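User: Fold this; tokens only.

Assistant: Input:
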Amino acid sequence: MFGLGGLLWLGLFFLVAFLYSAVGHGGASGYLALLSLHEIAPECMKPIALVLNLLVSGIAFIQFYRQGHFLWRLFLPIALFSVPMAYWGGLTPLKDIWYQRGLGIFLLVSVVIMLWPRRSETSILFPFSASDSGASDTFDSVNNGRGWWNKETGIAAFMGAIIGYVSGLLGIGGGILLSPVLLMIRWTQQKQTAAISAAFIFVNSASGLLGFVQQHTPWVITSQKTGDVMGPGMAVDAGWYIVAMILCYLILPVLLGGFMGSWYGAKKFNQTVMKYILCAVLLIAAIKLLL
């Protein structure tokens, strides 16, 4: 892994982390695509992608939060049910082929929706939502003085529950599913979407990873001789040993890519650039999943 091919592999992980973190994503779908090229076992791919997701999304959240793009009032109802549902999804086994094609089709539809020209400043699907060109806190603007729990927050909670379960099931953070929805219903602008997606990915990745660990314990029972007596012992599962070795190899380029991408996304990229970067990321992930 440390030859020319290994260096190229590291560079690809850096690039994935950079592009995804620039739009507030963790990059799980990209990591899974790259890991699959090396024929790594699926039971090893999922925890690797979730751990890398935690690192990159955490960095991205800090960067976007410090620039004032995070909306607590929108994030809290979305995360309310997404965290337990992501945990439940992490406990649920699913064959690869079932979710890869469905997710790929969903991502292609998301790209079409995001690029579709809009003639009205009001969302057709959600007429109560704010326009892209409105105030900086679009969701807060339409909920001003209406109390914490209302029609919009209820929809946000339901949306978070569905995406949370799918996230845990697929071993992703869910930002790649959440971002197009938030933009489609015009509750957030591009950088607000990135900030909320980063936090959403972090909490869902942690919850989904916990569920996966409980389903696939890192420890196995072995026979161990103590003196003249044979008794039970504990050892690290071989699959988790492979996971740890690969993470040690990938953690540095992914951290660098996540830091640089989120810094550029939070400070340098304008709204239009962010939109097309997100579409490119979604399209790449869709093609990888479908192929």
